[in-house]
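Database export, one record per block. Field names are fixed; values are copied verbatim from the stored entry.
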Amino acid sequence: MEDIKFYNVINDTLRSSPTTHTVTDPRTESRLWPVPIASGQDFEDAVTAAQTAFETWKLTSLSERQTLLTKLASNLRDQLPLLSQILARESGKSLLLSELDVRGAIAQCLHYAQPSNVLSDHVQFEDETVKIIAMHVPLGTVVAICPWNLGLVRGMGPQ
């Protein structure tokens, strides 16, 4: 596992960086692997790419989104052993807790892929003259500043 190389992913492109941070296993204090530190330009490029992607994503049908969530769950399941090992080493968690974290992310993807868990329009008020409907429409790009070791489940769902 020491030969793993990490990148920032921006617009489907892997980016390295001349500036890195070496992750340390908090249980053993051993040095693990270098990870790239994004530059200001990387940040700007990521926001621009996300805004551009949003223009297509907002037109993506609900069924396509559910299919993509199911595919993401499958990909996470396929990489479960490797992801669990990485999480255990970088966070100091046991392998069991790290595996539970990955399995939680898989479960969250599958939860939101189910038709019964869709945010539907909701009639908030209706009379003979007016009908008020709460709708859930995509609004745009969100930027989150979070710790590098934020768990998969916490990073994937509503907080």
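Remark 1: The mean pLDDT is 89.
Remark 2: The helical segments are 40-57, 62-78, 80-91, 95-113, 152-156.
End of record.
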